[in-house]
Design a protein that fits this description.
Distance between the termini: 19 Å
Strand order of the largest sheet: 2-1-5-6-7-4-3
CATH superfamily: Electron Transport, Fmn-binding Protein, Chain A
Radius of gyration: 14 Å
Order of helices and strands: HEEEEHEEHE
CATH topology: Pnp Oxidase, Chain A
Strand content: 35-45%
Structural class: alpha+beta
Shape: globular
Number of helices: 3
Number of domains: 1
Amino acid sequence: MTSEIPSSHLDLVRRPLGCVITTLAPSGLPQSTGMWFLYDEGAIRFSLLEHRKKYRNLRADPACTFFLMDPLHMGTTIEVRGRASFERDDDKSFVGRVRAQYGAAGPPTDGPDDQRWIVTIDPDRINTTGA
């Protein structure tokens, strides 16, 4: 079991690709969402608004999975299983960096009272294929 992204898959997580984040709903069923993310300081991070379902799921149960597939070589994948940790993004600088990586112009269209959170996946296990 490893908790670091293997060098064979660093190029994949550094590219601006959509990922899938899976959490557990209160019913116990998995809930998956396509998301933007940022590989930042050796960690998988993404931004969530406090009122969103995914945020509420993770606060209730921080277990989650990140999944990414190379669209050009679909046999190359990475799955990061772990637990979410949270940090406020009061100035929205983190979400700005995520948006810039994906070529989005300007700040997010959050409401004035919307609270943003930086979610970091603290890995328990990393599984890879290909590369």
